[in-house]
Amino acid sequence: MTKGSFLFLTGVFTVISLLSFSRVSGLWQVTKSSPNCTDISFQNCTPCQAGSYADETNIHCFCCMDHLGLGVCTSPDYCVPCPAGYYNNDNGSEVCFKCGKGSFSNSTGQTACLTCPQGTFQDANGASNCTPCVQGTFQNETGSTSGCYNCTEGTYCNKTKCESCDKCPAGYYSNTTGTVNCQSCSKGTFQDANGASNCTPCVQGTFQNETGSTSGCYNCTEGTYCNKTKCESCDKCPAGYYSNTTGTVNCQSCSKGTFQDANGASNCTPCVQGTFQNETGSTSGCYNCTEGTYCNKTKCEICDRCPAGFYSNTTGTVNCQSCSKDLEISGD
Ligand SMILES: *[C@@H]1O[C@H](CO)[C@@H](O)[C@H](O)[C@H]1NC(C)=O
Ligand SMILES: *[C@@H]1O[C@H](CO)[C@@H](O)[C@H](O)[C@H]1NC(C)=O
Ligand SMILES: *[C@@H]1O[C@H](CO)[C@@H](O)[C@H](O)[C@H]1NC(C)=O
Ligand SMILES: *[C@@H]1O[C@H](CO)[C@@H](O)[C@H](O)[C@H]1NC(C)=O
Ligand SMILES: *[C@@H]1O[C@H](CO)[C@@H](O)[C@H](O)[C@H]1NC(C)=O
Ligand SMILES: *[C@@H]1O[C@H](CO)[C@@H](O)[C@H](O)[C@H]1NC(C)=O
Ligand SMILES: *[C@@H]1O[C@H](CO)[C@@H](O)[C@H](O)[C@H]1NC(C)=O
Ligand SMILES: *[C@@H]1O[C@H](CO)[C@@H](O)[C@H](O)[C@H]1NC(C)=O
Ligand SMILES: *[C@@H]1O[C@H](CO)[C@@H](O)[C@H](O)[C@H]1NC(C)=O
Ligand SMILES: *[C@@H]1O[C@H](CO)[C@@H](O)[C@H](O)[C@H]1NC(C)=O
Ligand SMILES: *[C@@H]1O[C@H](CO)[C@@H](O)[C@H](O)[C@H]1NC(C)=O
Ligand SMILES: *[C@@H]1O[C@H](CO)[C@@H](O)[C@H](O)[C@H]1NC(C)=O
User: Of 2.60.120, 1.10.3470, 2.30.38, 2.10.50, which CATH number belongs to 220-319?
Assistant: First the structure.
């Protein structure tokens, strides 16, 4: 004999002479209007335990409806555990109650629901679990009924169930809410602080050639310059220009008396004696002093005419020659 049929017969023998029956799904079943436990006079009248309820389809009587919680189930065996998502904290109660929003029960027969932990929420009743916050969001409170918050700018969460978002580390930033992964600072910028929503651009005269810099920018080296912000590298000074300091914004043009024919120079080449350069920014070299003129020093911007009694019949003259052939006099 199966347990079910044994119980069925027990119920029948006990109540058969006392109750009216109705036929439900092939089983004799006590109606809801049945007299209470005392009237039925069950020997083993036991209330359903908290966390369980009377199973109306297989049972032969119901738990009492009275507020005293005096049950009428013939045996605790007739009570079935509340399913996950429900609870019953009331001995003798006929029904289970749905867990409220923000709570859950993940196993059967619970007498109370559990509160959704941080990092999760539940916006429905009768839940058997809580919904984890997705990446980029967090929930810092227990029992949330509404959802998760987006990570704020400068913070991120790259896993589910975040209870709080972490600050972007130095060298990284986040300029949107709901960030899963912070962005690394691009070349030409840096960030030395945690929790940043942007990166600091390199100022003019400096550069950053790597992404994710945490320390700052480098000065342009001598011979190079950067005349804008966010330089990823410095440009070489063009021919005719030079830079003899670090951190140069604009190269200097070669002064008169000098020239520079190469890029990236940290100085200019002085005109040698006998030559001159009358313009700034020369890229090509110096001119020979013309006949009749001379220059007896370096960096001449212009050649002087040979003084009276002296002459020069060649270009590039350093010292004019005396008209009296046995003398040669310095022109200065
Ligand atoms: C249950 O039984 C008690 C005792 O006989 C009686 O006083 C009470 O009225 C009954 N309750 C119902 C709902 O019939
Ligand atoms: C139910 O949830 C609790 C709390 O999160 C956990 O400790 C337990 O293992 C879970 N039980 C099952 C059966 O999932
Ligand atoms: C949780 O985070 C929200 C949104 O940032 C904030 O308003 C609230 O005060 C925080 N609660 C606690 C307990 O920190
Ligand atoms: C999340 O971010 C941390 C810190 O940057 C990192 O160590 C970890 O590997 C990341 N996890 C995933 C899954 O991306
Ligand atoms: C975030 O930064 C990126 C890269 O600098 C930029 O393209 C984007 O416009 C920024 N978004 C906001 C909302 O500032
Ligand atoms: C949360 O972040 C997501 C993804 O960035 C965005 O689509 C959504 O609008 C944000 N919600 C709020 C309330 O800021
Ligand atoms: C970036 O520039 C610095 C300073 O000049 C140098 O030490 C470093 O090797 C450079 N890095 C790369 C990737 O070129
Ligand atoms: C920067 O230098 C370049 C090359 O010399 C020049 O074309 C540009 O106008 C300069 N920009 C500024 C803002 O000075
Ligand atoms: C750079 O050049 C200028 C002009 O020639 C000069 O006055 C200055 O002393 C130089 N500075 C250095 C550090 O050489
Ligand atoms: C960078 O250049 C600036 C301006 O020329 C100067 O004041 C500073 O000392 C330089 N820093 C380094 C590390 O060379
Ligand atoms: C500089 O000298 C050269 C060669 O003599 C000449 O062609 C040029 O016109 C001069 N420039 C100026 C600005 O005087
Ligand atoms: C400049 O003068 C030097 C020395 O007199 C000479 O060797 C050279 O050929 C001259 N160059 C030109 C372009 O006249």
Answer: 2.10.50
